[in-house]
Amino acid sequence: METASKQIIFEHPLNERTRTLLRFEHLFNQTWYYSIQSGSWDSRAAIDGIVDMLNILLSRSDMKSELLKELRRYHTYLTELTTSSGVNRDLLDKVLNEITEATTNIQNNIGQIGQELRDNEFLQSILHRSSIPGGNCAFDLPLYHYWLEKPAEDRLSQLDQWLQTLEPINTAVMLLLSIMRDSTVPTQERAEDSLFQMALDTQSPARLIRIALPRDTIFFPKVSGSRHRFTIRFMQVEKQTQAIQTKQNIEFQLTCCTI
C-alpha cells in the first residue's frame, strides 16, 4: 500500500456536519498560513479567512452544541472499545483525554463560540463588505487600509489574538477529523470504465469518503452521494481546462469513514 506522501487524497463529506468540519479546517489552515507572513497582502488573506469563519459561525448558531455533541459521541464510542482485545490502550487513553480536554475548552466558552470576534466592529465592517466584489478597497474601508499599513509585528500580534479566540473550535475540529480519518483501514478498489458505485449501511452510515490516487496520476474523482450510496466518476483534463470522464479502468484506495 502506498504511503500518503506518494498519494493525492480526495475527500468527500456525506453529511452536513462533516461538510462544516472540513470547511472550517480548510479556512483555519489557510488563515494560519497567512497569519504568520509579514506582507500586507498576507494579512488581507488571513483576514479573509477569519471573516469566512465568522460567516460560518453566524450561519451556524448551533456550532457550539454541534461540536459538543460530536465530541461526546466520539468519547462514548471510543470508551466502548476499551474492553476490546487488541486495542492499544495507551493510544486510546491519550485520544480520550484529548476529547475530554477539547470538550472542556468548548464548554468553558461563555455564550457563543467566537463571540469576541462577532462583536468586533473592525471585523464586522469588513464582513459587511465581503459580499461586494472588491468591497474592501482602501476607499471603502479606510480604517482597514490604515490597519494594513501598520508595522508587521502589530498586525501579526493582532491576528494571533483573534485566532486564539477560535482555537477551541480549531482544536475540536482537527481532533474530530483526525479520529474520523483514522477510523477505517483503506481498501483497494477498481473503477470499471472509470465508474465506481457503493451502497452504504444506513445503520452505520459513512460520514466521509477518502479516495487515494498516485501523486503522478492524470485523473481526479468526481463524487456524488448520500447516506445511502455514492458514485465516483474518474475524470481527466483535456485542453488544459476541460474535464471529461475517462473510459479507463482506475485502481484506487478507498476509505469509508463511519465513526
Give an overview in words.
- The protein folds into 2 domains: 16-181, YacF-like, CATH 1.10.3900; 187-257, YacF-like, CATH 2.60.440.10.
- Helices cover 49% and strands 20% of the residues.
- The protein is an alpha+beta fold.
- α3 packs antiparallel against α4.
What layout of secondary structure does this protein have?
Elements: E1 7-13, H1 16-35, H2 40-59, H3 63-80, H4 89-107, H5 115-118, H6 121-129, H7 142-148, H8 152-181, E2 187-191, E3 195-199, E4 208-214, E5 219-225, E6 229-238, E7 242-245, E8 250-257
Antiparallel strand pairs: 1-4, 2-8, 3-6, 4-8, 5-6, 6-7
Helix pairs in contact: 1-2, 1-8, 2-6, 2-8, 3-4, 3-8, 4-8
